[in-house]
Amino acid sequence: MPLIKPFRALRPAPGRAAEVLAPPYDVLSSVEARTRAQGKPFSFLHISKPEIDLDPAIDPHDPAVYAKAADNLKRMVAEGVMMRDAKPSYYVYRLSGHGRTQTGLACVASLADYATNRIRKHELTTPVKEDDRVHQIEAVNAQTGPVMMGYPAQPAIDAMLAQAAAGKPEVDVTADDGVRHQLWVIADSATIDKLTRAFDALPAIYIGDGHHRSAAAARAAAARKGDGSHQYFLSVIFPEREMTILDYNRVVKDLNGRSAEQMLAELAKRFTVTASQEPVRPQSSQDFGMYLAGGWYRLSIRPDLVPKDPIGRLPITLLTRNVIEPLLGIKDPRTDKRIDFIGGARGLTGLEARVKSGEMAVAFALYPTQMADLMAVADAGGIMPPKSTWFEPKLADGMVNHVLD
Length: 405
Description:
Layout: E1 4-5, E2 9-12, H1 17-20, H2 30-36, H3 45-48, H4 63-78, E3 82-84, E4 90-97, E5 100-110, H5 111-115, E6 119-120, H6 127-140, E7 142-143, E8 147-151, H7 155-164, E9 171-174, E10 180-186, H8 189-200, E11 205-209, H9 211-224, E12 232-239, E13 245-246, E14 248-252, H10 260-267, E15 271-276, E16 287-292, E17 295-301, H11 315-324, E18 339-343, H12 347-356, E19 362-365, H13 371-379, E20 390-391, E21 401-403
Parallel strand pairs: 6-11, 8-12
Antiparallel strand pairs: 1-5, 2-3, 2-21, 4-5, 4-10, 5-12, 7-21, 8-11, 9-10, 13-20, 14-18, 14-19, 15-17, 16-17, 16-19
Helix pairs in contact: 4-6, 6-9
């Protein structure tokens, strides 16, 4: 089985993509999705968040929700809004926004290689979220959310993608958030074969965003058994050097019984603490910003406290082992209600606002995890701490979908 294969994408019919494309299912709440889909009968949110078409009191995991997703997808196909390509193809998917551009390949990737860790992971998954995606796949008989992955430096692949994207795209839509989504179809056999062989020669590819989607695809395939399209999962694979991870910051409700002065004194045992008149954006993995008691501080950790292993040297690991656990008393950030996580897209002012409101007592700004660090952790078979990465820009739901034959 090759690492990747072309597939017959189910995608918006010509001229309909602007009506269909939607943010990923997991970045909007049900309330937000309901608002975003108002007046948009063909928004993909009606498939990825189908509870928006039912009573607001319904449990999003109720069987009726998944049945509604299936009905909505059938309706969009029947009305000609969505179409399925006649021939297996690859698709070049380009994201442009916020001063960044990344160009990747939409394909289906081997679950056999996922099982042997040639497709490498770096996060744990939660059963509830996995179950949700399994039920979605089974209900609509398709994988409707692509997994974002990265491939290591490979100029030959970069060149093939650039050449395929030289002409006019079949889809060119700028979303509400200013991100431009473009798609080109690669249908000729020679280019398909070259891309398949080039990817097959790679030692590994790396999941960036979409661990629950890939895990759910594996579970759904195991239930079906046998050969078939279910043995592959929907993916868009970018050159890792083009992928952008934003900071993923922390806010905590209290100081674990300490005053602000006591907290600063404890921090000074592990960090160089410097007051700042401006919000502090960390400049390295050993540098942190902190907003406490109406002021910003720069925290620079003592070099002797930085381990050499790929997980130990991550910014979030350094903060967890030196502040969040020993000083703030938070042992499990996955379950402790005293801590919350804020994606870097909200900026440092978003951190400051949570503390100024009185809701939180302290905020920490982290240096973004780098793709090289993510790959090093994955290569070592390690698991990154929760909420370590926030990828931007994000893929749109609805651009390409993988029907399970």
